[in-house]
Amino acid sequence: MKSDPVRRALVGGLAGALILAAGWRARVLLRTNPNGGTPVTLPNGMRIQQWQKMETDFLYEETFGKYSVYAKGNYIDFQPGALIVDAGANVGMFTLFAAHRCRGEAEIFAFEPIPTTFSVLAANAAAATRGDYSAAMGARPGASLKIHAINCGLSATKEEVIFQHHPHFSVWSTQDADFAHQRLDRFLADVAGMIPLAPAVLSRAVVRPFIAWMGRTKKVTATLVPLSSIIEEYRLDRIDILKADVEGAEVAALQGITPNQWDLVRQVVTEVEYFATKDLVIEILEAHGFTTYWYASERERYGDVRSEVCMVYAWRAGDRRTLRPTT
């Protein structure tokens, strides 16, 4: 069996060319080898700490780039002075995006349960809070940015759980082992479908080993807390934006808000992995008075894939004029 460095070298060559040509999500995953804990300058000029570059490229494109799921249309209203919750912050790409859209004036609670990933988030949060990115954010003189990096995940109750941590692609880390296996199978099927003309021997020798390498997991103990406890601890009187990208735990994260706290929440944006879960999320949000919109983000971006990943946006109708779908 070939060693990981050899596999990654193969991926960087022949398999990289095959899958990059296919044009699906793997195109941003195959460019580089992991080099976690190192500085990198983003295209927007922010010099941040990264866990590994292939994730940085992917996260930047999804957050700041042409296909940003957080800048789509005008579904999320970012205003200076906003109080924002970032559940599933990873290294803090959305946190930095939100701070940028708020012109460097916001208070953000960024939650990341995996300790190694959290260490990078904490470094980026500290840099942003001390003003390292003020120029890139277009912050006005005197703008106040405070980021609370919290080494926990959000859920319905407080508990210690075992996460399936993906050290080679940390954004896939999840507490649901079955979900992790299902996602890997779906990802493999979609990639295989995008390169149907590739010889089977190449798929066996290169594509499948690389995806298996991405899918390797390590068990990590992490803490989950309900958002209700954070609201109480910090005496929050509002949450202008609640963002959740929690790899299959979206419903549990929303259930961590008590009924009498929902009026504090003005907007929600969440990535949801399956259409059935999307329906549950929308049911919860609409029951609490939100207007909602959703779209299948990966199908829209990548075309004919099996992915059911979608984005759900929710807002209070009375807070602003009716929003119109835009691309």
TrEMBL record:
The upper taxonomy is: Bacteria, Bacillati, Actinomycetota, Actinomycetes, Mycobacteriales
Record-linked Pfam families: Methyltransf_21
What is this protein called in UniProt?
FkbM family methyltransferase
UniProt keyword terms in alphabetical order: Methyltransferase, Transferase
| Any one Gene Ontology molecular-function term assigned to this protein's record | methyltransferase activity
PANTHER family on file: METHYLTRANSFERASE, FKBM FAMILY PROTEIN, SLL1173 PROTEIN
Transferase in keyword set: yes
Task: Identify the NCBIfam families for this entry.
Answer: fkbM_fam
Residue ranges annotated for the Methyltransferase FkbM domain, each copy included: 86-290
Q: Name one GO biological process term.
A: methylation
